[in-house]
Amino acid sequence: MTDVDPVAAAKKALEDAQVALAAAEAQAAVGAAPAPAGAAAAAPAAPAPASTSVPRPGPLNADQVDAIRAGYAFDAPALEMGALVNGVAMPDVPIRIPIAMVNRHGLVAGATGTGKTKTLQVLAEQLAAAGVPVFAADIKGDLSGIASPGTESPQLIDRTNGIGQKWSAMASPVEYFSLGGVGTGIPLRASVKGFGYLLLSKVLGLNPTQESSLGLVFHYADRAQPPLPLIDLADLRAVLMYLVSDAGKGELDDLGGLSKATAGVILRELITFSDQGADVFFGEPAIDVQKFLRMAPDGVRGLVSLMEVPGVQDKPELFSTFLMWLLTELYDAMPEVGDLPKPKLVFFFDEAHLLFNGASKDFLQVITQTVRLIRSKGVGIFFVTQTPKDVPGDVLAQLGSRVQHQLRAHTPDDAKALKATVSTYPTSGYDLAQVLQNLATGEAIVTVMNEKGAPSPVAWTRLRAPQSSMSPTPADQMAVAVAASPLLVEYGTPVDPVSARDILEQKAQAAAQAAATAAGVPVPSAGQAGVSAQQRQLDAQIARAQKAAAAQAARDATAQQVAADRAARQKAAADERLRKEAVGAGVSIAKKLIGAFFGSTRR
Asked: Which of 137, 128, 138 is nearest to 472 (CA)?
């Protein structure tokens, strides 16, 4: 008698069970409801036509499933992503990311509406719970729900039970920020000098020649005697106009000079940029990026820093380059730490394609270098975008974890992007071109970097549900949190230090007085000069107060619009939640009826 291999027999039994389960579910899907009492017996139902909604055996065999199970069985602490899908979800095959590998960066990609924001939320809340601070941009306002506990529903519990997730409501500690105070949050500002000419050139859409000229202006302002601090856009405009005026046109002769035409282009772009409201983003006090590395008051959880940006969606380049400025500031400010058991900060870069669109070669080089080297500072970066092709190859090569939601191929460009995405994945048992188009919302193809730095097997994953609210946190709760923040005292009020514009005005006045003296024109006495100086200072104070009042009025109007938009989104989310709960209740009733019907037929 031939001995039977118990392992092979078990694998065969598992495959048979999966096939049987799929067949049973298909039969249930085409079954009819019981006929009403007294009704004539109905004819046997015709077989239902083949449908992609009917569960089928999964694409992987038992050996491939075992390989994935082993590939994600990490001993070290890990972020739980979800469960393997092979025809049905398999709770006994969890898909995870080692926390120690999060600083090797990652990509969350997928078409609009496929669940990228919820994936980001799942990662952020687990990182915070593990004591890792998080920074993320909240473009649509949806991510603010991480500050509020989630709401249980039958549909939610059914999904989480199906992937082995023990769900319970949980909120994360959150600090809210906003660009320049537009919206709800601690104002994030940067000085023009700190922002740098490369990033500013990207925002202004300058060509390489204009970018080089702007770099020359920054160099001059830094080397001038006395130095000309570039605090806001008005300072930069003042330096540009001085350098092409009669008084300053020779200042750059030994550095190659600045053409009046190039200066004119830069000035026009700066004026347009200012007219769009960008002035509020540049100034002091500039944020200390170390504030993003704080822990929650309990000393255990990491703080989630959310930058609200719904008020600047018409300035996407500014938003993306401001995030890049934060990354470069983090790189400059943080010490080398090497590989740690967990990162010091994880930075989620949403709408990442905005950063790379139209970027110059020098700008891309800065991004690539920052991404490559910031890992050793203990910072992990996750780029969030629609397709991997949105990210340059040199940057994509640095991303160790990949979470790819559904991709659509409705156009030739979509098909090309799909093919390019498939080519970037390791060999697997999937027809990825097919699977990526058929993923349901909340599912993704995942591969990560394991504890040894090697890629894990490619896994079709049903992702976990956030434990925090999937709807935005109410605006009044956000406002209370901002008002209670100790950072509001430090960064809430803008300051107006002596800057390049003030120094150049003083220089022009001194030159005018010297010219008047040389021409024999009477110069005001000391007393008269003092009165004139006091009047100029008073006029300047009045002008600054008027500018501040106008800026505050603009911020208030924007805040009111943001609050109205958020209220509308919350109402729409509540309506959708009620609709889903109603559908879920209907499905539950249908399941019970079908179960009762099949139970009675068996008897």
From this structure: 138
CB 144 within 8 A of CB 308: yes
Structure tokens that stand for 106 in this block: 């990652």
Over the stretch 251-284, which tens digit does the pLDDT of each residue have? 887 777 888 899 999 999 999 888 877 888 899 9
Sign of CA pseudo-dihedral 63, 64, 68, 69: negative
Spatial distance between the Cα atoms of 180 and 6, rounded to a whole number of angstroms? 66
Q: Tokens for 114?
A: 């496929």
Amino acid at 167: W
Beta strands in 303-457 (DSSP E): 304-308, 345-349, 379-385, 401-404, 443-447
Q: What are the distances in angstroms from CA 520 to CA 246, 275, 469, 510, 524?
A: 22, 43, 76, 15, 12
DSSP per residue over 414-469, as a string?
HHHHHHHHHHTSPP-SS-HHHHHHHPPTTEEEEE-B-TTSPBPPPEEEEEPPPSB-
The answer to whether the bond into 227 is cis (omega within 30° of 0) is no
Tokens of 581: 């709960």
- Mind listing the domains of the chain with CATH numbers? 64-172+301-473 (3.40.50.300), 191-291+481-509 (no CATH)
Residue type, 311: G
Q: In sequence order, what are the residues at sequence separation of 6 or more whose Cβ sits closer than 8 angstroms to the Cβ of residue 20?
A: none
Is 0.85 surpassed by the pTM of this model? no
φ, ψ dihedrals at 467, nearest 5°: -90, -15
Angle subtended at Cα 318 by Cα 179 and Cα 362, rounded to the nearest 5 degrees: 135
What are the tens digits of pLDDT across the range 457-512? 999 999 999 999 999 999 899 999 999 999 999 999 888 888 999 999 888 888 77
98 CB-near residues (< 8 Å, 6+ apart): 74, 76, 77, 78, 448, 449, 450, 451
Report how far Cα 482 is from the mean position of its chain's Cα atoms: 21
Closest by CA to 441, choosing from 406, 488, 487, is 406
